[in-house]
Design a protein that fits this description.
By secondary structure, the protein is mainly α. It has 7 helices and 2 strands, in the order H-H-H-E-E-H-H-H-H. The protein is elongated and about 70 Å long.
Amino acid sequence: MQKLKLQLYTGEGLAPMAKTDRTYSISELAREFGCTARALRFYEDKGLLSPRRDGLTRVYFARDRARLTLILRGKRVGLSLLDIKEILDLYGSDDKNIAQNAVALKKFKSRIVALEAQREDIDQAIEMLRDGITRMEAANISVDAAPATPSRGAKAKRLEDAH
């Protein structure tokens, strides 16, 4: 599991990118990655992507494509855009990306701790709900016996009448 997380930013395990002059338009990248052009422009505004310009047209290169892969992976595991940017900006800061890997490792471990705490909270909430269901079913309360909930309009009307 930790090996997978380290692959997020080091690029280890990713298909090697050929040295190429291949370029991508904003719509090509958006389509390929299942995101919007607006999201790509947002990442550019945040300094995560740096497409070149050909007049008003954004021109993305393999480096931008690789960075987008890593941005989306980082988001998927719950890293903030600031954390992702900090990690990406350290790429190439030293020969073996030691600084980048050290920062990534610290952030990944921190994220795991947070996710484990969330999982514990979710497990407790599920258990509380199951206990409630067990008690209600033991008291022969069923979904069919519950009164219909009033429509949103009726609730708003009662609130207005109360004031």
